Amino acid sequence: MTSPEFAKTKSIVTSVLLMVIAGFAPAVVMAALGWTTAVNVAMLGGIATFLACTMGRGWHTGLVIAVPFSILTALTIWSAPYAIAAAVVLAVAAFLRGYGAKAGMHNALIMTVIALGFIVTGPPKFAGPLPSAIIAGMVMLATTLWVTLIVFLAKKWVHPPKLAAIDPDRVIWFSSVLAIMVGVATWFVVDLNLGHGGGWIILTIVVVYQPYLGDGFKKAGGRAIGTVIGFMIAIIVGVFVTNGPILYVLGTVCLVVAMAVMMIGKPYWWFATFITPAIVLYNSAGSTVTKVAIERVEATFIGIAGTLVVMLILLPLAKHFQRKTGASEY
Questions:
Q1: What are the residues whose beta carbons fall under 8 Å from the beta carbon of 15, sequence distance 6 or more?
Q2: What is the SS3 string spanning 198-229?
Q3: Cα–Cα distances in angstroms (integers) from residue 120 to residues 174, 233, 301, 329, in the given order
Q4: Which residues contact 29 (CB under 8 A, 6 or more apart)?
Q5: Segments making up each domain of the chain, as ranges
Q6: CB atoms inside a 10 Å sphere around CB 284
Q7: φ, ψ (nearest 5 deg) of residue 158
Q8: Residue 179 pLDDT > 90, yes or no?
Q9: How big is the CA angle at 216 (ends 212 and 220), to the nearest 5 degrees?
């Protein structure tokens, strides 16, 4: 008879293997073929789609988001040089992600906006007769469909969670405020040309702001704690490792662990603890780990501070929805 511990371990191992095969394979193949320009889009798209499928409604979610996500990717790259246009595109993406809360899909779709945030702050430039935006959209579509296919073939081992729908009025406010915050942040980071650090600000806003503000305040604390711990991990690694390829490998290990702890439902600060060194190490090949780590910590706390201010302003509205619906949370 299978013990609960063995079953849980087996589930974790299966999820990690599926994530590597489904989420990372497109980027690995493109890197092996020498198409390095496409690697970042494929990596972000692979992870976003895998999480959408496994945290949403299985492979059906992949089919639903494939075309919209690819179109938004193309529009993101097209708009990247123009702060206002980029802000509008990311705001639309953020609203759609937030509106997914009506079906309990807001957590499943979280990485889609984060992916676009990193793409807009570092848009790839493809060589060839087609515009870079079109090529990137095609890469994203191929990646999304690949992940969906793998999740479909592995549906026996993929067990999406039960999703809890959010009150429609709360969903509208959540989606609208998220869209405004992400739009303003995108305008800010593009206009000031903040680069990858700007993507980190967008990521923090998307992660911290939640349909229920109580959850958001907890996420803010977890984000801060995990970022500080992750910062220390990255600094320690940087003391002993300076080789670019090794930093990439260690970054990948941290990324896999971060995704694994998210899928098994560990507290958010666990995820932040591993995702921080993952991104820092990925971006340290051409710089010092300490420099990159400090930039990312600064961006994270800017995102936390801005989001907390907005949530404090919205607190009376959240209390109103709590009284109106009789919810146990605000």
A1: 54, 260, 263, 264
A2: HHHHHHHHHHHCCCCHHHHHHHHHHHHHHHHH
A3: 23, 28, 20, 34
A4: none
A5: 1-163, 212-330
A6: 25
A7: -100, 120
A8: yes
A9: 175
Residue with tokens 């492979």: 59
Say how many C-beta atoms besides its own lie within 10 A of residue 44's C-beta.
24
2-16, 129-143, 310-324, range with the lowest pLDDT? 2-16
In whole angstroms, what is the distance from residue 65 CA to residue 60 CA? 9
Looking up tokens 């603890």 gives: 273
177 closest CA partner among 106, 271, 250: 106
User: Token match 């990521």: residue?
Assistant: 203
Q: What is the pLDDT of residues 249-291, one digit of tens each?
A: 888 888 888 877 877 778 889 988 998 888 888 776 556 777 8
Q: Is the dihedral of CA 124, 128, 134, 135 positive or negative?
A: negative
**Cα-Cα-Cα-Cα dihedral sign, residues 60, 61, 66, 67:** positive
DSSP 112-147: HHHHHHHHHHS-----SSS-HHHHHHHHHHHHHHHH
Q: Of 27-31, 65-69, 102-106, which one has max mean pLDDT?
A: 65-69
Residue 11 pLDDT > 80: no
Q: From CA 307, how far away is CA 318, in angstroms rounded?
A: 15
Joined tokens for residue 262: 């998210």
Amino acid residing at 242: T
